[in-house]
Specification:
The protein has a single domain, classed as Rossmann fold (3-Layer(aba) Sandwich), CATH 3.40.50. It starts with 9 loop residues before the first strand and ends in a 20-residue tail after the last strand. It has a 7-stranded parallel sheet with strand order 3-2-1-4-5-6-7, with helices on both faces. It is built from 8 helices and 7 strands. By secondary structure, the protein is an alpha/beta fold. The longest helix is centred in the middle third of the chain and has 30 residues. Bound molecules: NADP nicotinamide-adenine-dinucleotide phosphate (NAP). The site of NADP nicotinamide-adenine-dinucleotide phosphate has 28 residues, from α1 and β2. NADP nicotinamide-adenine-dinucleotide phosphate binds next to α1 and β2. This is NAD(P)-dependent dehydrogenase (Short-subunit alcohol dehydrogenase family). InterPro entries: NAD(P)-bd_dom_sf, Sc_DH/Rdtase_CS, SDR_fam. Keywords: Oxidoreductase.
Length: 260
């Protein structure tokens, strides 16, 4: 068995009804873990759990709803006997445009879902299980948290804060709990449609690895970070972006604007 074997472990993946979260849930189940998939409604969580090949249940829980989160964690421990892995994946971006044009409602929603929820869920799993028995937490950040972009300033600020929070929690919860993050580039999901749907060809042509990301690209890295293969890694943010953060690759290949 490799360190990627998760047989006997139990994982909660927030925001797992589609996209990156659903792929992460399948990757963890494929490695042998029992998986609890959350989404805002019980129906979509159940539908996603039905898609998983392996042992999986769905739990309806808005990530910011503390009672629902506590219920989910308690149910997980009751049903499977532990909660060894937490993937703080649910994320949102209701704001688009200059940062000074945004309002407090959008700010609060972004920071509640993208930053407070990882604190809340990490706190709950630590108290319920990991604080005593150990575990691994992986947060889904973004390369936007490592760079500057127009129009999604608040979202990127929330992801920058999540990267910082990952380091903070890695220190506070050491040595029993490892806390890491992934920072995906543009991945083919509903959330990021505005970033790839109309310009996939151009984006792929400017990316070192010639394509946008697929949810499985991120899921493989998350499964690694959650597993014993990463047992000496904590506080890290792994960039998974096909080289997008490196900049436009076209000039490096002798063309000024490949694909434009
Ligand atoms: N796609 C990208 O290019 C990209 C790049 C970097 C980072 N990310 C990050 O990756 C993560 C997953 O995003 P995605 O691209 O896979 O998006 P997606 O396809 O839109 O999926 C988002 C998931 O989160 C759930 N969700 C949304 N709000 C929620 C809430 N308040 N409580 C519980 N669940 C909630 C959704 O379920 P329901 O709608 O069923 O509730 C859905 O399962 C996010 O943290 C996002 O910021 C994405």
């Amino acid at each position: 068995m490799t360190g990627l074997d998760l047989t006997g472990r139990t994982a909660i993946v927030t925001g797992a009804s589609r996209g990156i979260g659903l792929s992460i849930a399948q990757a963890l189940a494929t490695a042998g873990a029992n998986v609890v998939l959350t989404a805002r409604t019980q129906e979509s969580a159940d539908a996603a759990a039905d898609l998983i090949v392996g042992t999986a249940i769905g739990v309806g829980a808005h990530v910011v709803d503390e009672d629902a989160a506590r219920h989910c964690v308690e149910l997980t421990v009751r049903q499977f006997g532990s909660v060894d892995i937490l993937i703080n994946n649910a994320g949102t971006n209701p704001a688009y445009g200059p940062t000074i044009d945004q309002d407090h409602a959008r700010f609060a929603k972004i920071f509640d879902v993208n930053l407070w929820a990882p604190v809340l869920w990490t706190s709950l799993v630590t108290r319920a299980w990991m604080g005593e028995h150990g575990g691994a937490v992986v947060n889904t950040a973004s390369i936007g948290g490592l760079s500057l972009e127009p129009n999604i300033g608040l979202y990127n600020a929330s992801k920058a804060a999540l990267i910082h929070l990952t380091e903070q929690l890695a220190m506070e919860l050491s040595p029993k709990i490892r806390v890491n993050a992934v920072a995906p580039g543009v991945v083919r999901t509903k959330l990021a449609e505005a970033l790839w749907q109309e310009q996939e060809r151009e984006l792929s042509a400017s990316t070192a690895l010639d394509r946008i990301g697929e949810p499985d690209d991120v899921a493989a890295a998350v499964a690694f970070l959650a597993s014993d293969a990463a047992s000496w890694i904590t506080g890290e943010t792994m960039v998974i972006d096909g080289g997008q953060r490196l900049g436009d690759v076209a000039p490096f290949r002798g063309g000024a604007t490949v694909g434009a």
